[in-house]
Amino acid sequence: ELKVEQNPLFLSMQEGKNYTIYCNYSTTSDRLYWYRQDPGKSLESLFVLLSNGAVKQEGRLMASLDTKARLSTLHITAAVHDLSATYFCAGPGSWGGGADGLTFGKGTHLIIQP
Amino acid sequence: GAVVSQHPSRVICKSGTSVKIECRSLDFQATTMFWYRQFPKQSLMLMATSNEGSKATYEQGVEKDKFLINHASLTLSTLTVTSAHPEDSSFYICSARRGGTAYYEQYFGPGTRLTVT
Fold first, then answer.
1. Which one, of B28, B27, B77, B75, lies nearest residue B57 by Cα?
2. Considering CB atoms only, which of A50, A98, A105 is closest to B49?
3. For testing contact with chain B, the best of A5, A10, A43, A95 (most B CBs within 10 A)
4. pLDDT in tens, B51-82
5. Which of A36, A90, B6, B77 would be B33's cystine partner, CB 3.0–4.6 Å?
6. B49 CA to chain A: closest CA distance, Å?
């Protein structure tokens, strides 16, 4: 059974600063997902990382995957208020063995203050 | 492309009644659909996986008789919460996956907020 751990779970930072969210997972996985969720809303897909060493960037967000270390990171560069949200990482794997239902981390609640 | 809709977006029902939630893939055929539940300020938990024309696969701790899932076509899956109770109040989110080379992509619906009074 896949377990996904994120840290930190809560992060308050100032605009303009850089920070990294970490996602560790327990078993071998060939891909890792990052999502954003705004209050009261569903998930917005940010990145799908498909291989070891994969790095993807979109605006101020950059995600990477190290399958050997079972670690993915989401790096925020020069944060702006609009990035305030909850960020989830997720990997494929479920107890029921369903075809790649996702197991989510607990989420990182990010607040960016002016 | 790859839009998933859910209906209704919000529903309030009385304890003991049943509620049906629909999940539709609007512009693609979904070989597999997934149902997740999210309690306030918590993460998403996979409830079940459904494939068109076959029985759903439920996760540990999810009652099959309480959460009935039907995947009648390649564009529609339904989740029926039977005999709902206040503890079933939650945000239910579906996702859909299409086959082929994009097998890894999951497209999430906007969610259905269920309140049981």
1. B77
2. A98
3. A43
4. 888 889 999 999 999 999 999 899 999 999 99
5. B77
6. 6
